């Protein structure tokens, strides 16, 4: 079973990399981009076959390591 | 007086920190990240600067979950002293020993230069060699030193006089210009600037030496 984790800076936390990307897009003539937030995607290959247990396990991984919940939020997707 | 300096793969200020402790009179044990316990009789643990585990995932995140960090957490929770510098500060926030987190510098650039700091409190074993309000020059060298703490945490840090150092001219976007914070019991200090790189006249500045001398006098009394 595959899992995908999306980690983003929380909305209240300034994202200087996203801001730099927004500026670069404007420089290229892409008007109308009001905001850019940059995050990361982590893909996991799991031996677990039960989606509910897989989600619980990956959530624990996020809390313990994959995300720093002081500044980051995360979302877990389990692919069937 | 004994200090332990933790060594992770990618640590690069470990020997400088060892020398700074030794100059102040400590005997120093270098402790590998795979060790599961601290040597007996350690007065203070130093978590050095560098790029532990290549800064993979997040700065300090992998190191914070290494076997020795369990022992560092135990040492701190028993009231032991810990000094985390630069990557060491990042490791201490990742373990949860210190509050907040270090983000990418606001200007996105790696910054390596000597900056002015204001000593915010002299009320700790680390800062008792300074006067509150004193201005000192200490080098920084980091890409992710932009300190973040939410409003509630910031208020707690301020109310309890736990901000140890602030930047005179904020180089990295840190909230409230914070360069270093103390734990609740004032025995753990995390800071982005490198006092061990300003501990000898040959470094071009020696304002950091007072920290190691103050720590030595603390443990000499004990």
Automatic annotation (TrEMBL), chain A:
It catalyses: N(2)-formyl-N(1)-(5-phospho-beta-D-ribosyl)glycinamide + L-glutamine + ATP + H2O = 2-formamido-N(1)-(5-O-phospho-beta-D-ribosyl)acetamidine + L-glutamate + ADP + phosphate + H(+). It is found in: Cytoplasm. GO terms for molecular function: ATP binding; phosphoribosylformylglycinamidine synthase activity. It is an enzyme of class 6 (ligase). This is Phosphoribosylformylglycinamidine synthase subunit PurS. The keyword Chaperone does not apply. Signal peptide: none annotated. Its main location: cytoplasm. InterPro entries: PurS, PurS-like_sf.
From TrEMBL, chain B:
The keyword Ribosomal protein does not apply. It is found in: Cytoplasm. The keyword NADP does not apply. Signal peptide: none annotated. Gene3D superfamilies: 3.40.50.880. SMART domains: GATase_5. Pathway: Purine metabolism; IMP biosynthesis via de novo pathway; 5-amino-1-(5-phospho-D-ribosyl)imidazole from N(2)-formyl-N(1)-(5-phospho-D-ribosyl)glycinamide: step 1/2. GO terms for biological process: 'de novo' IMP biosynthetic process. PANTHER family: PHOSPHORIBOSYLFORMYLGLYCINAMIDINE SYNTHASE SUBUNIT PURQ (PTHR47552:SF1). This is Phosphoribosylformylglycinamidine synthase subunit PurQ. It comes from Salinihabitans flavidus.
């Amino acid at each position: 079973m595959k899992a995908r984790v999306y980690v983003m800076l929380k909305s209240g936390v300034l994202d200087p990399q996203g801001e730099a990307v927004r500026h670069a897009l404007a420089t290229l003539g892409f008007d109308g981009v009001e905001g850019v937030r940059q995050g990361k995607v982590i893909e996991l290959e799991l031996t677990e076959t039960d989606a509910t247990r897989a989600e619980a396990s990956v959530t624990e991984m996020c809390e313990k390591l994959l995300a720093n919940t002081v500044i980051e939020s995360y979302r877990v997707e389990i692919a069937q | 007086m004994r200090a332990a300096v933790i060594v992770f793969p990618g640590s690069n200020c470990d020997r400088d920190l060892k020398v700074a402790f030794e100059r102040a009179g400590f005997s120093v044990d270098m402790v590998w990240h795979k060790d599961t316990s601290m040597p007996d009789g350690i007065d203070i643990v130093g978590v050095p600067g560098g790029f532990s585990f290549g800064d993979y995932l997040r700065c300090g995140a992998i190191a914070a979950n290494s076997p020795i960090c369990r022992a560092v957490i135990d040492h701190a929770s028993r009231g032991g002293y810990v000094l985390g510098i630069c990557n060491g500060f990042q490791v201490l926030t990742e373990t949860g020993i210190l509050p907040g987190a270090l983000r990418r510098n606001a200007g996105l650039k790696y910054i390596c230069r000597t900056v002015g700091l204001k000593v915010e409190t002299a009320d700790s074993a680390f800062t008792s060699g300074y006067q509150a309000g004193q201005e000192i020059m200490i080098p920084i060298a980091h890409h992710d030193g932009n300190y973040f703490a939410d409003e509630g945490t910031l208020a707690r840090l301020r109310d309890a006089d736990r901000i140890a150092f602030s930047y005179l001219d904020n180089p990295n976007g840190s909230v409230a210009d914070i360069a270093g914070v103390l734990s609740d019991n004032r025995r753990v200090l995390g800071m982005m600037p490198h006092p061990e790189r300003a501990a000898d006249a040959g470094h071009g500045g020696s304002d950091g030496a007072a920290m190691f001398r103050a720590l030595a006098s603390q443990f000499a009394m004990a």
